[in-house]
């Protein structure tokens, strides 16, 4: 089987059932590492070295950053990895945005795929010196020195977001704590507190913190005054909003009133148009139109199917009352309507 193409690994493939311990042993034994957590592979440097093992010379190991701490440094490593995949026709999408977050599940699945791909390619290199290969990269020698130390505990937290290996902490015993406390107490008793010394100043500051600070009291009063002012402005704004809503309602009512007039005129003209104006008294028609236009809101005006004005419910036609003078022009009539 050729190593120049990716072998498909499905989500239900046996490769995705490989455990964390087996993966760590695989990377550590093959590449001479001392990894303790899967999250330590999030920098992309380990994947670059494994790819260089499978495809010798495909990754410029001198450009691999083993001291990567920032996201942009991680991304630079993954760019080298992706270029190597492209060069060797490996059809594998590397989700860099997920991997650089150093989340366990994302990096576990990628490590499982890397191991499965390695097993399927059957790559093998005699006398491979993983430490020497890493030493050619940025910070590779320092990384090897950290890796050569004692392996950290499995549950230890290795830096921010799982990046890097944390050296074992110095054990703390009861006798050490006791001796340190004794020396500190002796030192305090041996050195007299001079007037104006930093220790005396700190004690004075601690004693004064119990009393109210006049400046804080003043700031508190200022904030209360501002709060009252904002509450008053809020009430004022609510009142204005109510006035605006009332005005809008009145405008909508007026709009509907004038629209009703125009609709009645339109119905009247449509009826006469259907009759082709045969025998129609145009003067009477114009008079009816003016009656509709000049009708007030209290005058319930409507048009029947014959195009005539329907009288009010009580039988009295208020439109027969004296009308206002006719508009002198079409523009004046439009102003009156709208």
From TrEMBL:
Source organism, top-level taxon: Eukaryota
One family name in Pfam for this protein: EB1
Sequence ranges of Polar residues compositional bias: 319-328
Subcellular location: Cytoplasm, Cytoskeleton
UniProt GO molecular function: microtubule binding
InterPro entries linked to this entry: CH_dom, CH_dom_sf, EB1_C, EB1_C_sf, MAPRE
GO cellular component: microtubule
SUPFAM superfamilies noted in UniProt: Calponin-homology domain, CH-domain (SSF47576), EB1 dimerisation domain-like (SSF140612)
Protein name (database record): Microtubule-associated protein RP/EB family member 1
Organism of derivation: Cylindrotheca closterium
